[in-house]
Every structure is written in C-alpha cells, then in structure tokens.
Design a protein that fits this description.
This protein is α/β, with parallel strands linked by helices. The chain has two domains: 5-109, HUPs (Rossmann fold), CATH 3.40.50; 148-265, Rossmann fold (3-Layer(aba) Sandwich). Helices cover 41% and strands 23% of the residues. The chain has nine helices and ten strands. It has helices at residues 14-30, 47-74, 88-98, 113-119, 121-129, 165-174, 192-200, 215-225, 240-246; strands at residues 5-9, 33-40, 79-85, 103-108, 134-138, 148-153, 177-183, 205-210, 230-235, 261-265. It has a ten-stranded mixed sheet with strand order 3-2-1-4-5-10-9-6-7-8, sandwiched between helices. The protein is elongated, with a radius of gyration of 19 Å. The two termini are 16 Å apart.
Length: 266
C-alpha cells in the first residue's frame, strides 16, 4: 500500500492551520497530495439563504486558495480543495471516499488534546463515520520528526491485516521505533505477540503488557516515558477505545497531551 492522498477538513481556524502545517510536513515524507475540505450547513432554503450560501462558498474558496498558497510556500505535495454542503462527519467520510484519501488529518482545539478528541463531538463523529485512518493533531502540537510511536491495543483488533497498513507505512517511511502497549483482556483469542511478530517482525518492537485497569494513565505515562512523537490506537466495535469514548465523566480530564494521535479503523 502507498499513501498518495491526505484529506484535511478545515474551518480555517488556528487549530486547523496547525493541522495543515503538520499535514504539509508529513506529505513531504509520504510524497502525498493534500486535499482540503470545508463543510457548512444551512437550516433551510430561501432566497436569503441562497445569498448567504453563495457568500459562504465564495469566502471559503478564497480561504482554500490562501491555504493552498501557504502549503506551496512550505513545499508540501500538490494541493486541491472543495467546499461541501452537509453534515460535517458524514461529508468528511463521503469526501474521503470520493477522493480516494488514504489518511485524514484533523486539528482539535484545547490543551487537553485527548479529552477533546474523545469527547469533542466533531472529532468523535468523524472517527465513527469514516473508515479512513485519521491523525488528530492537538492545537498546541508542532510537527516533529516521528522517531517513536506508542501503539496501544488489546488483542481484538486483528480481524483485518489491512488495519495496520497505515502504521506500517509510517514506520517504514520515518524509521521510527515502535513500542507496543498490550491492554490485556480475557477475550484475546490468539497469542498477541505472535500476531505482532507476523505484522511487524520479531524483535522489531518493544513490548509492554498492562492489565485493563486504568488504561488512560498507562498510555499517558508510557508516551511520556518513551518521549513518543505519536500515539496509535485502533477503533472498532466494542474495543477499549469505545470505552474511552463513552466512559464516565470522571475520566474526561484524565489526558492532557499535545501528542498527535493516529486512529486506525478495523
């Protein structure tokens, strides 16, 4: 698999610009093009609404042209852009399919990056609606060469080998070291390390195992311990990432990070 197209949803905010800067630098490494997407919604159709809509589209297109010029200045890949009417998450998923995007990169606002990711409706909905792998870039992130990736997973994600393609490409392109944090559970059907060896190669990663208790603190502590440049999680029905989405409010302030998150889909 190659990674030829990055989709970047944008509202032209400073947060989105941070994500675009990150995407631009990553596109150089991946030799990928960037496709900007701005979505908007309007309540109903009328003559006045149509005038407003025309103004929205024209202004958004102007912003896309300005962002495209900035990417060209930074030396990123070829850049295109669209303005689409529709629900944000559904439109992102649709645009990813139409453009054959291999990766979505989104910005998230606030110093508490993972809190915003897991409980901010826009990002959560985008993750749920699209099957495309996604990198979520906290507002305070600055692009750094990716030297260490922390991959946290339980044993239930291996129903599809292709789920790991994006992570494998990033490891190959960046030369990053991989640390695997195994979230133990009683439903793991096959020995976890055998599957890791099959996908990544034996002795090509560091391995740590933790019990299912307090996943949040464990991921945070391990990412800090290894000075991770990216944390990778995988999302599919009824795995521990769903628990992060839907857990009680006591955990909503558990994470404070500026580390980008790679969300793989299974």
């Amino acid at each position: 698999m190659t990674m030829k197209k990055i989709l970047l949803p944008t509202d032209f905010s400073p947060t989105a610009q941070t994500a675009l800067t990150y995407a631009t630098q990553l596109s150089k490494l991946l030799q990928a093009d960037i496709h900007l997407l701005h979505t908007y919604e309007l309540p109903r159709t009328s003559a006045l609404i149509q005038q407003i809509e025309q103004s929205i589209v024209e202004q958004a297109q102007q912003h896309i042209n300005e962002e495209s010029a900035r990417v060209n200045t930074l030396g990123g890949g070829r850049i295109t852009g669209n303005v689409r009417k529709g629900h944000n998450a559904e439109t992102i998923a649709s645009e990813a399919q139409k453009t054959d995007a291999n990766l979505i990169i989104m910005g998230t606002k606030g110093a508490s990056g993972l809190k915003e990711i897991f409980f901010g409706s826009n990002t959560v909905n985008a993750i749920k609606y699209t099957e495309t792998p996604m990198i979520v870039v906290p507002e305070n992130s600055e692009y750094q060469p990716i030297k260490r990736i922390l991959f946290a997973a339980d044993g239930n994600f291996f129903s599809s080998i292709e789920a790991l393609d994006t992570l494998k490409i990033l490891l190959r392109k960046t030369g990053a070291k991989l640390t695997v944090l195994h979230i133990e559970n009683s439903t793991t059907a096959v020995p976890f390390k055998l599957l890791l060896n099959e996908h990544f190669g034996q002795d090509r990663y560091e391995f740590h195992k933790i019990k299912r208790l307090d996943i949040y603190t464990a991921i945070m502590e391990h990412s800090r311990k290894i000075n991770a440049d990216m944390v990778c999680l995988i999302h599919h029905y009824r795995n521990f990432l769903d628990e992060l989405f839907y857990t009680s409010s006591t955990y909503k302030t558990a994470f404070y990070t500026d580390i980008p998150l790679l969300i793989l889909k299974n």
